[in-house]
Amino acid sequence: MIRAKILGAGSIGNHLAHGARERGWAVTMCDIDPAALERTRNDIYPTRYGSFDEEILLCSPDQVADELFDVVIIGTPPDSHVALALAEMATRPPRVILIEKPLCEPDLASCERLTSAAKQTGVRVLVGYNHRLTEHTRLAAEWLSEHSIGEITTLRAMTREHWGGIFGAHPWLAGPADTYLGFTSRGGGALAEHSHAINIWQYFADLAGLGRICEVMAMLDEVESDGAAYDRVAQLSVRTDRGLVGTIVQDVVTQPAQKWLRLEGTEGYLEWQVSVDPSHDLVRLVRHDGKILEQRVAKTRPDDFRAEIAHLEAVAGDPSLPSPLDLETGVDTMKVIVAALASSREGRLVRIDV
Known about the structure:
By secondary structure, the chain is α/β, with parallel strands linked by helices. The protein has helices at residues 11-22, 34-49, 78-91, 108-121, 135-146, 164-169, 189-193, 196-207, 303-317, 327-346, and strands at residues 3-7, 26-30, 57-59, 71-74, 96-99, 124-127, 152-160, 213-225, 228-240, 245-251, 258-265, 268-277, 280-287, 292-298, 350-351.
């Protein structure tokens, strides 16, 4: 049986706790705020899943500080991620640490400290960009491998979603200023919170052999309002080290949400879409010779985390197992976030070492 500790009793912690319990894991959920633990027991978990699972141990982190876990999941605000991961590695190192996205606040020094510690301790660190593990992503990768769309000419991705849904899942928050979400410097705002678009762009670029992002030109709409300071729109033009030019757009203002990617080729295109309707994701491959493949993949919100938990279980069983969630991929996304901030604020193209 996998023994897992989840740090953070917010929305993501509850999702992952439920997924872990479905697979029979022993789950301990920790939070420094007793009110957060009470919300889990009396509100979040029973509202989503029918009743609270009494097999889940709720406690403060210091109550289990001396216990050894197979998996540690960090679902706290981004600017606490690295410090918590380093503390876990320094005391009772687990086999695997999963850090919720984004990896950290926009600070590459934090990434370097974490990467160094992971190498020294041998702890496998993954970053929770779970769109890489969904069934429709697996299907898109399969079609891209089996059906040529010719030379890829551009790649576009977007995660455009009004963050009212986030606050709806966290009704105890009055607004952006009550949380990291309202502060770009803490890993909030459109650029970091909705960095699924950057990350999935990088994933499909890798699958198609298009290289890694090495140049970023960005324009951000940064606002200060009601005590918060965040970017609400982030538009990036990027180039890879193999010459592909593409675009990435993220925002916290679009209703209804658009979570979409398109690989454009000389002989056709591949489209990937999250929640094309409330119950389905979508993959479509169209060749200009008339061949069309299209599939709607049924899914529920818990499905977004089931594949992630199953993958964690596999990696915990074999820490040498390749993973699309590897720390390096999360660091690559953070490099683009940091470059985009510099590009927008300084009005220049920023290069990334790859």
